[in-house]
Amino acid sequence: MQQVVLGRSCAIASSHPLITAEGARVLAAGGNAIDASLAMAAVSWVVLPGQCGIGGDVFAIVREPDGRVWTAGGSGYGPDGGTPDFYRSQGHSAIPLTGALSVSVPGAPAAHALLAAHARWDLSQLWANGISLARNGFACTSKNRADITERQVPLAADPSTAACFLPDGQVPAVGRLLHQSDLADTLEALARDPLSFYRGELADRSLEFLTSGGAPFSGDEWAAGAALGAEPAISVRYGDLTLHQTPLPSAGWMVLHQAGLLDGSLPELDLLGPRACALFAGAARTAFDDRFAAVNADNEAWRELLDPERIAAQRVGLGAPTTAAVPARIDGDTTSTVCVDDEGRTVSFIHSLAFTFGARITVPGTGVVLNNRLGRGAYLVPGHPNEVTPRRKPLHTLNAWIADDADGLRHAGNCPGGDGQVQWNMQVISHLVDHGLDPQRAVSLPRLTVFPGSDADVVDEPSEVRVEEGLPQSTLETLRIAGHRVREIPVQRGGPGGSALAISRDPSSGVLSAGADPRMEGTAVAW
């Protein structure tokens, strides 16, 4: 197993060596944690193009040296013409998962503009290495090749996407240079003004492309995407700490819901023993059921769901079995970073296109791969709280967290992986807080997943508890005897469940420790 890394000043964790190296370069040159996060994002767009992009969304949570915690929620609206009747009139019983109809207004440019206002350097400096990689080419990795191979047919169907990722019409070999010169040009322009994504030539190109594909955008909702301000984090107590999360439309409240259900129950239980696993599964299923029943991006239902009296009632009988047939895999792809600078400023940053390569379409001449968040996050179910509605942001799986106390930062992290995110984040938080594990061990341990969660494309699937190989067989057998439907699965190396990150700070010494998930090419550095 990888070893935890330790340092006194700074720490960084990401899912790719080049991304981590970029963050370290910026911090060493005098940038702060926000600078480093923005620079790492630009490199991520190029070296992990299936996982993230400027045509996707961003959520970040920031803890300032003075203890103030704030968030950036960069996600966008559905189209103004996107009524339920519109999609049904096109013959759809659900919003499509690919193509123009699956796209919501990208929130990433607005989030970068907001975060850049708190950076020391300008975006032209921070994005320079990402732009250079896009223009001069980066070496295709085994992860890139696997992503492209699995989605070859839809990628090939879009000429602009195929030109980038299927050179000569073929899946690129590992080591082949992939060039994205159109993206480099676009990023150079956006670095001068990221909000120009929502107006002017780039907006016109995007809207023309999407409306020609049938998407009912008016253009007004696109322009409205530029308006984004900092929001306070949402928080609960967990153990002796305050756990902070990103607010709606992020799924952060679901981690807080699970924290309320589990607080105080796990420290005396065996790590990943049968009772602990049953409680993890029960807390996750309760949160997903409540989300499906009550929550959309515009309402305040989540506040009632976190009411302490309600949570106390839900704790009774928590961990009862779920039964199910066997659904498919968790789909979705995302990547993230965590960074602490020499002033103690901390950023947990996560960004995504929703599914791998998002909608599998690229705005011609721009290199901008578009997300499919609307198709993933909104329902076409009459009367449902999360039924698709014009200019409503679809619910998100993305979330990022920080835990602190009166003495300062204690832990920060995130974990990509669709509806697995809120579950795996809770498991990592428990490992850190309830059992005192170091970040590397916490992100490396086997994970369990209640599936499905509440993604629109799988919400009707029956439920089961899936566990990664490596959990004690005694735990699995005890869960089965108790009536749980349990399926053991291989560790998802290179898959959507594999890039948890965490950084911890020792309150007595101030020493930082960092860990990155071995399921990906995760790397952490500290000094």
From TrEMBL:
Region entry Disordered, spans: 492-527
PANTHER family: GAMMA-GLUTAMYLTRANSPEPTIDASE (AFU_ORTHOLOGUE AFUA_4G13580) (PTHR43881)
Originating organism: Janibacter limosus
Protein keywords: Transferase
Protein name stated in the entry: Gamma-glutamyltransferase
GO-annotated molecular function: transferase activity
